[in-house]
Write a structure and sequence with these properties.
The structure holds 2 protein chains of 2 kinds.
Chain A: H1 2-26, E1 28-33, H2 42-52, E2 55-60, H3 64-73, E3 80-84, H4 85-93, E4 97-98, H5 113-116, E5 122-123, E6 126-127, E7 130-142, E8 165-168, H6 171-181, H7 192-202, E9 206-210, H8 213-221, E10 227-231, H9 232-240, E11 246-249, E12 255-265, H10 271-281, H11 284-293, E13 298-299, H12 302-306, H13 313-316, H14 321-326, E14 327-329, H15 335-351
Parallel strand pairs in A: 1-2, 1-3, 8-9, 8-10, 12-14
Antiparallel strand pairs in A: 3-12, 4-12, 5-6, 7-10, 7-11, 7-12, 7-13
Chain B: H1 2-42, H2 59-66, H3 68-102, H4 105-116, H5 123-134, H6 139-147, H7 160-185, H8 188-196, H9 201-229, H10 233-238, H11 246-255, H12 260-288
Helix pairs in contact in B: 1-12, 2-12, 3-7, 3-9, 7-9, 8-9, 9-12, 11-12
Classes of the chains: A alpha/beta, B mainly alpha.
Protein name (chain B): Peptide ABC transporter permease
Subcellular location (chain B): Cell membrane
Transmembrane segments (chain B): 23-41, 84-103, 110-133, 158-183, 204-226, 262-285
Chain lengths: 353, 289
């Protein structure tokens, strides 16, 4: 008798909790993104939750590979995932993400046609990624070390900066940077030997290989470096948010551009919530606040960029048609290429010892 | 009699089993299973997780021998391991001696606490604090220039010495602790006997103290050498452009290119090399001990 009462009680509790969890999951939006990259700003989450009634749960990754692994090993957990357009193809091919019904995302209509129509995000007429922001991997300088900002990438090789140059510890970025310096197409490198020779001669100039925004900012704050490769959004953040003497240089040789987009994973339990979240992320209101409060890359939404002040970096410099001509967007990279790039990069790093 | 002893030891094992079980269960779950999984991965062409077809291969192990890069890095890492171990002996052994034989009571407890203190902070925090000390315009540079009458420029950050300093700092407590245990076990009357027979301080050290504390030195050296050879965090953060070692290359394979099979194969080659070194040196060291 006592036993059955206990069983009844346990069953009741189990039913009650599962009903609760069900009710909760229905309104939860699980988001997978880089940490500190817009989607986890507390003010933004609060505004979104208030407007839509959905609850946002953030999860983070430290590399694109980790993001893909998380999608593979947790099917059905995430509702929104932020994917670099160059990786969208791989995620789609592995059936990790599903087509998006852009009719449910009102702000999609304002996305600049060249970004929305990117062949990296559309397959068989179906949209697999909603462009969010784009930016550059260009150069940034320590303003204390330059009278006038340099215009050429070759400044990195200038003897005057020996031991005060940094480059990111990333094989793909380093090789593509070498391709730009040697006047090649980053997505179709014909002369790998030239890239290797150019990077080899850069090695003695290098102070260290940076891996996070924080590394870069700390070295500038303590005046240890003059120049290095940097991301446009990070340079903006360093200047506006951390008040550091950093300015971005888009060299005349060009720069590597990347496009970040939102996708909806296969098996998402809250597609409507995901669509609402993506719509909010590309909304001009969110974007202007993000840029002002934190500093951000350039929105893919033309209305969002137009809502910035005339002289804002993301509008004036990044929106310059002359810049648009120089930059090259990253295309997908095969695993074989990635491993070859890493082998080259490791060889360079070992020979410097 | 002999039979009696045998049954006695057998029942000893049986009664010891409940005590051993948790440790061995834990070892099986936490070490044996992941390691076997890694052996499995290291002989595959692709990770099954990526959804591609895969087969068994020895290609990953062959890569180590076909690319000079890996051998160069392995030698650099072994050298790093030796240097760090040596510095740990030089710094840790005298400290352990003072703790075991000179200090008593409260002061011993206080110094002991200082030795163990680094264990209470996160490894990453320790490395970043070294970064603040070692760089140009950092704490060391500023402090020395404030005291010294002439101007010196200290910038050891992003160099090989910085890596050694960071690693020695992390691992020296192991050496102090293992040496302390063996030094404390040395009977003071042995030292008194040596003195009364007219041995000089140096002779005492060479003929009595070091031989008797050898087990502690060997244990400490093994505890330090093995993880240092595979270290990747300290070289990456403190080493700058000279910070590429065998451990960082393995990390790259796992994190940057998602080539787990090659990363696992490289790890096992390292494990094999370390085991061979320990096996080769153990008879020599045991004789010395």
């Amino acid at each position: 008798m006592r036993m059955s009462k206990l069983t009844a009680f346990l069953t009741a509790t189990a039913v009650f909790t599962s009903a609760l969890t069900l009710a909760a999951t229905a309104a939860e939006v699980h988001v997978l993104n880089w940490k500190g990259y817009g989607a986890d700003e507390p003010w933004a989450i609060a505004a979104f939750e208030k407007a839509t009634g959905n609850k946002v749960i953030n999860d983070f990754f430290n590399s694109e590979q980790e993001m893909l692994t998380k999608l593979r090993t947790n099917p059905g957990l995430y509702d929104v995932v932020m994917i670099n357009a160059a990786f969208n193809d791989q995620a789609m091919a592995e059936k990790l993400i599903q087509p998006i019904d852009v009719a449910n995302i009102p702000n999609y209509a304002d996305i600049s046609p060249d970004k929305a129509g990117s062949p990296m995000l559309i397959r068989d007429g179906k949209v697999y990624g909603v462009p969010w922001v784009w930016g550059l991997t260009a150069l940034a300088i320590n303003e204390k070390s330059f009278e006038t900002p340099p215009t050429s990438i070759t400044e990195m090789w200038n003897e005057a900066h020996k031991g005060r140059v940094v480059i990111r510890d990333d094989a793909v970025e380093a090789v593509q940077f070498g391709a730009i310096t040697t006047g090649q197409n980053i997505n179709d490198i014909k002369d790998m030997e030239a890239v290797k020779a150019k990077l080899t001669s850069l090695m003695p100039q290098i102070k260290t290989f940076w891996s996070s925004e924080n590394d870069w900012n700390q070295m500038v704050a303590s005046n240890q470096i003059d120049i290095g490769t940097y991301w446009s959004g990070s340079a903006d953040r360093a200047k506006t948010h951390f008040k550091l003497p950093v300015s971005l240089v888009i060299p005349r040789e060009g720069a590597v551009a990347w496009l970040d987009a939102f996708s909806i994973p296969v098996g998402s339990k809250n597609v409507a919530g995901a669509e609402a979240f993506i719509n909010y992320m590309i909304d001009p209101g969110f974007y202007v606040e993000w840029v002002t409060k934190v500093g951000a890359p350039v929105s893919a939404n033309t209305k969002a960029v137009a809502a910035l002040p005339e002289d804002a970096f993301n509008r004036k410099v990044m929106g310059d048609p002359d810049v648009a001509k120089r930059i090259q967007f990253q295309a997908p990279i095969t695993d074989a290429q990635r491993e070859a790039y890493l082998a080259l990069w490791q060889e360079l790093k070992v020979n410097v010892k | 009699m002999a039979e009696h002893v045998a049954t006695g030891s057998r029942s000893g094992l049986r009664s010891a089993l409940p005590l051993l079980l948790p440790a061995y269960l834990w070892l099986t779950v936490a070490i044996f299973l992941p390691l076997s999984a890694m052996v499995f991965f290291s002989s595959m062409t692709e990770l099954p997780l990526s959804g591609k077809a895969w087969s068994f291969t020895l290609e990953n192990y062959a890569t180590f021998f076909s690319e000079r890069l890996y051998l160069t890095l392995l030698l650099a890492s072994l050298r790093l391991g030796l240097e760090v171990t040596l510095w740990c002996v030089v710094i840790g052994f005298p400290a352990a001696y003072v703790l075991a034989k000179v200090l008593k009571g409260r002061s011993r407890e206080a110094i002991f606490l200082l030795v163990i203190l680094p264990f209470w902070s996160n490894g990453l925090v320790r490395i970043f604090s070294w970064a603040m000390v070692l760089r140009e315009g950092g704490i060391l540079d500023t402090a020395l220039n404030a005291v010294l009458p002439f101007k010196i420029n200290i910038d050891v950050m992003y160099s090989y010495p910085a890596v050694v300093i960071g690693l020695v700092h992390s691992y020296v407590p192991y050496m102090v602790l293992t040496c302390y245990l063996t030094l404390q076990a040395i009977d003071d009357s042995l030292i008194e006997a040596g003195r009364s027979l007219g041995a000089s301080r140096l002779q005492m050290l060479r003929r009595v103290i070091i031989p008797l504390s050898m087990p502690g030195l060997v244990a400490g050296a093994a505890l330090i050498f093995v993880p240092v050879v595979g270290s990747f965090m300290e070289p990456r953060i403190l080493g700058g452009r000279t910070g590429t070692f065998y451990g960082t290359v393995i990390e790259d394979q796992f994190v940057a290119v998602f080539n787990w099979p090659l990363g696992a194969a490289l790890s096992f080659i390292l494990l094999a090399v370390v085991l061979v070194i320990l096996a080769l040196t153990s008879p020599v060291l045991r004789r010395a001990a």
